[in-house]
Amino acid sequence: MLRYLGSRLGQSLLLLIIVSFIGFAVLNLAPGGPLSQFALSPGMTQEQLDKIAAQMGLDRPLPVQYIEWFRHMIVGDWGASYRDGQPVLAVIGRHIFATLLLMGTATVISVTLGSTIGIFSALKRGSGFDYTMTVFAMIALSIPTFWFGLIAIYIFSLSLGWLPAGNMYTVGDGSALDYLRHLILPAMVLALVDVAIWSRYMRTSTLTVINQDFVRTARAKGLSRRRVLLRHIVGNSLVPMVTLAGLQLPTVLGGALVTETVFTWPGMGRLFLDSLGYSDYPVVMGLLMASAILVLVGNLAADLIVALIDPRIRLA
Amino acid sequence: MTDTTRTGHMNRRQALTLMGAAGLMGPAMIGRDRAFAANADPSGQIVLAFSQEPTVFNPLMPHIEVDEGVYYAVFDTLFDFDPEGALFPILATEVPTVANGGISEDGLSWRLKLKDGVTWHDGTPFTAEDVKFTLELTVDPDFRSFRSTGYSFMRNITVVSDTELTWEMSEPFAPMAAILASTYIIPKHAFDGVEDANTAPFNNAPIGTGPFRFKNRMAGDHIELEANGEYHMDGPFLKTLIIKYVPDLNVLYTQFKSGDIDVVGMQYITPDHLAEAETLPNKVVTVAGTATFESLGLNMMRPQFQDPAVRKALYAALDKTSIIDALYYGVPTPTETYMPQQSYYYNDQLPQHEFDLEKAAALLDEAGWMPGADGVREKDGVRLEFTNSTTAGNHLREQAQQFIQQTFGAIGVKMEIKNFPPAVMWGDYWMNSEFDTVVVGLNTLAGADPDTSSFFMSSMSPARGGAGQNTFAYQSERVDELLVAGASSFVPEERKAIYEELQEVIREDLPFLPMFQYAVIKGRKDDVSGPASNVNNRIDTWNVRDWTRG
């Protein structure tokens, strides 16, 4: 087990270096750059732009910039945002709460609801319920989230006036109830799509398990339906879901770009979009590294958990 | 189309006019201001929304337009432009002019008197040392300064007393007053003992003398400002000012409609929502001109644009009216020049554009540009074929390009559309004149000052080795002479004649084909008063000290 862990960690580190190199190269080789936003300012001169570039260290050769960045990155100094001069880790830290709140809520809803729907669809395969849920999943998966978002705002905020049209809280209020009211619409919109995904996976996984020998054996032993379902079917069909959950981790922490924009939610997705728009390289690199680390950690954690609960994997 | 809501501003102007008439000068005026402040009882809150996020809080560092929305609330300038283009004092007791002795006849010696009794938000008294520090920091080679134009002419900045300072200019430079009007004064004491001004704590926790104190910022969401009870002018009348960041313009409008936003700031309501916005209950929606003009800019170094007949023909083949009416819902105003129509220096006698494809074709025929085998005109081996670029994703501009492409095609001119994301478009591609033609919105003025040397002076083209913003690479001896004459004159009447002629020459030369002067659609709740348009300032919070609620 330890050797397995060790080799996985080694691979991960190598991957991180490759990701950072490619990310850095792509960002910096793309034309334009962080200074172009000032080019149209009245009174701006090329001389002044060059001076600002020199001050920010942007005039140095790219390999030098990369090595410098990498040297600082490995000791935990991820640089400072070009836009507001704040350390990258602090910038990310300030957006993480908003993302965790929204994505966490949406994930809890979608996993619980999606798994339940998936299991029942599989058990009652071909029933009216199964068909309805299949159609629902297809609709949810094929319609873009921003459209759902706008429709939800139109119905629940503009027409009915029940819920706020956006933002994470009312400035000056900020009570738990206020957060909750603001959370409902975006969390629902996000959960809608994820429910569809989870229900489809869970349905397939459950169907595979139902047809396995051990389920038939359990039934043949005369166990109650309920006991077979809970002990043998649900437990086993959740195993592949662990891997899926591991892959979902970076998405959950990376935020939902579109939903965050539609609901003016100050999370990581929007931070990424903003930082790209302003060519704020240090923040973009920070987010890139953070999500790469999350992908690796998520995968590793999922593999380890699966290995713990499924001895066949450990032996391989 | 002009804004009609300027109640708050007119009040103060009337008050100042009255004071002037009564002969109350200097200290008496401050006394009056402070009396107002003592009477002011700030109440209520306004949520003002921008579509970009303000992130740079040191006004001397490189920033974008939206950051100035915060500066006007937190900081003060020495004086500022009112909507008519006249300067009024803020931290200064009077605006220095040749008439009042603040500027010497030759424009080389300046003397500035400051208000007494003004304090910074942390209670420290404001003095002439702060002004000196601010002016010197702009040219400090170790400091990442936004701009040094104008400041670099200043010599021997001398603090005479706490409320007075003087300096010399290495050359007479009329736009200096306009540059000072956009120079927000920052506190010297916030930089005491700071090793690197680029990373001073002040840069994220600004201290100003302005009507509002910086309370806190929630990154990616909003900035909260609170009333400065010690403010030295009339106001503020709001307890809290929230500057909210809403990136999507549709969402911005939706939140204005649902009541989450009280005042829609930059980039305002989109033209496609105008008709509906005007019918919203309890909302005031106005259309106001801005100093930005849209044009089709030509790279004058390209051989096909060196023939004046080509430029004239292209202009005649530009269907301005259709672009304005069909794409922009008739919101912007057609223009023949770069100068805003609200400006004192605007030349209203320029020849009027006419969309006439026959005339355009005739012009090219006469000049010897004949259609080749594929219908594209050519002369001496040069084809009338070029690319046109603008920011990808700006759908109105992209549609305008298609209109232009069609009408140009009708006269045998081939235009290929080649767009880029903003960061690419306005990078080297624009600054080093790597484009053939562009569709661009430009504000070439510094406040109300008509000087545009940086954009039109021959020596200011980066592609020709200059350091300015003359990215059209335009060269005209007459324009150069006029720009030099205009920048060294301090008499508005004299300057008016100079800049009117300048506009004539440029309208004749057509280094860019002027399309329209931008107008924006502003919206606010009807219980908010104060927001007033000012074409001489970049952003609406220029008079936020006057804004009231209820």
Automatic annotation (TrEMBL), chain A:
Gene Ontology terms describing biological process: transmembrane transport
UniProt xrefs under Gene3D superfamilies: MetI-like
Any Pfam family matching the protein: BPD_transp_1_N
Subcellular localization(s) per the UniProt record: Cell membrane
Presence of keyword Transport: yes
Topology relative to the membrane: Multi-pass membrane protein
Predominant localisation class: membrane
Domain of life: Bacteria
A GO CC term assigned to this protein in UniProt: plasma membrane
The keyword Cell membrane belongs to this UniProt entry's keyword annotation: yes
InterPro entries linked to this entry: BPD_transp_1_N, MetI-like, MetI-like_sf
This protein's UniProt keywords: Cell membrane, Membrane, Transmembrane, Transmembrane helix, Transport
Membrane-spanning parts: 12-30, 96-123, 135-159, 179-198, 233-263, 283-309
Domain ABC transmembrane type-1: 96-306
Family: Belongs to the binding-protein-dependent transport system permease family.
The protein's name in its UniProt record: ABC transporter permease subunit
Species the sequence originates in: Falsirhodobacter algicola
UniProtKB/TrEMBL annotation, chain B:
Superkingdom of the organism of origin: Bacteria
Subcellular location: Periplasm
Keyword Ribosomal protein: no
GO BP terms, alphabetized: peptide transport
One Pfam family matching this protein: SBP_bac_5
Cellular component per GO, a single term: ATP-binding cassette (ABC) transporter complex
PROSITE patterns on file: TAT (PS51318)
SUPFAM superfamilies membership: Periplasmic binding protein-like II
Limits of the Solute-binding protein family domain: 96-455
Keyword annotations of the record: Signal
InterPro entries in alphabetical order: Peptide/Ni-bd, SBP_5, SBP_5_dom, TAT_signal
Gene3D superfamilies linked: Dipeptide-binding Protein, Domain 1 (3.90.76.10), Dipeptide-binding Protein, Domain 3 (3.10.105.10), Periplasmic binding protein-like II (3.40.190.10)
Family: Belongs to the bacterial solute-binding protein 5 family.
UniProt name for this protein: Peptide ABC transporter substrate-binding protein
Source species: Falsirhodobacter algicola
